[in-house]
Amino acid sequence: MSRPVVLAGLAALAGLAALGLTAPGLTGLIAPGLAAPAHAAPEPPDKLVQPARPAAPAEPAQHAPGAPATPVAKPVAKPVAKPVTKKDLAARAKSTQHGPPPAPGGKPAKLLNLYNQWTKEWLAVDPTAPPAGATLDHFLRDHFTNKPTRMEPRLLGFVVSAADHFHTETAQIVSGFRHPKYNLILRKKGHQVARDSQHTHGNAIDFFLPGVPAQGLEAWARAQKLGGVGYYPDSGFVHMDTGPVRTWSGE
Fold it and tell me: How many angstroms separate the CA atoms of 21 and 104, rounded?
């Protein structure tokens, strides 16, 4: 190859190298002094600031084989409300208030047991601590209408005093409160009852003491002069009320 041709080819290659271009197979022919200047690699773009990622949830602890696992708390079951029965209501109605026990060696108070012949009910009375008025009113209620009224408190004292005098622990009640409606029915049937009986006002009581003659009870009641006293020998009871002092006899 002639020298001029070689020089021309080298010049062409030098121009291509200046432009960053190469001709395959001819690069090695460029003279070392005519090599194309090296271009610096482009710098990477600025790194974008990435937002912090949330921490991954902790993995459950792995237990070694054979080691007991940590017990997992079980949900506590809510208690189921028990339905209230009639037996529960009756137990709640009973009084839980009791008086102090008697002193060691002391004799407890003597109780008087009242029995209502019509309602078949019993009422134990402590003379030193009489029952509440509502309790006595209910016990002496009218058996025909089953309605009570406010009873004269002194009536219970009459019965307690009579039982104490005759040394008995039981008194049977024949009549306490008498509803005006029932009183009218008795009058229409011919019974010996007053039109405006003290029983209709809650001021009278008919009773007797088992084992005590009615005549003896009537004599004791007359001597008290506490109110009206009626004696019914055939029926075997005595009437006492808080009205004016008076006496009479019936059948």
Answer: 129
Question: What's the CA gap between 173 and 138, in Å, rounded?
Answer: 13
Show Cβ contacts of residue 114 under 8 Å, excluding neighbours closer than 6 positions.
122, 123, 124, 125, 139, 159, 170, 171, 172, 173
Tell me the C-alpha distance between 146 and 179, whole Å.
Answer: 9
| More confident of the two residues 174 and 46 | 174
Is the model's pLDDT at 224 over the cut of 50? yes
148, pLDDT greater than 60? yes
Residue pair 116/173 in contact by the 8 Å Cβ criterion = yes
% of the chain with per-residue pLDDT over 90: 51
Residues 149, 150, 155, 160, Cα dihedral to 10°: 90
Q: Do 14 and 34 form a contact (C-beta atoms < 8 A)? A: yes
Measured between alpha carbons, how far is 225 from 245 in angstroms, rounded to an integer?
6
Closest CA to 219 of 243, 241, 240: 240
Written as six digits, the tokens of 217 are 């009870």
* CB 228 within 8 Å of CB 243: yes
Tell me the one-letter amino acid at 160. Answer: V
Contacts of 95 by beta carbon, 8 Å cutoff, 6+ apart: none
Distance between CA atoms of residues 140 and 146, nearest Å:
10
Q: Where are the beta strands (DSSP E) in 88-245?
A: 112-116, 121-125, 170-175, 204-208, 228-232, 237-241
- For 39, the token pair is 């271009």
- Of 32-36, 126-130, 193-197, 230-234, the range with the lowest mean pLDDT is 32-36
Quick one: tokens of 57?
A: 């949830």
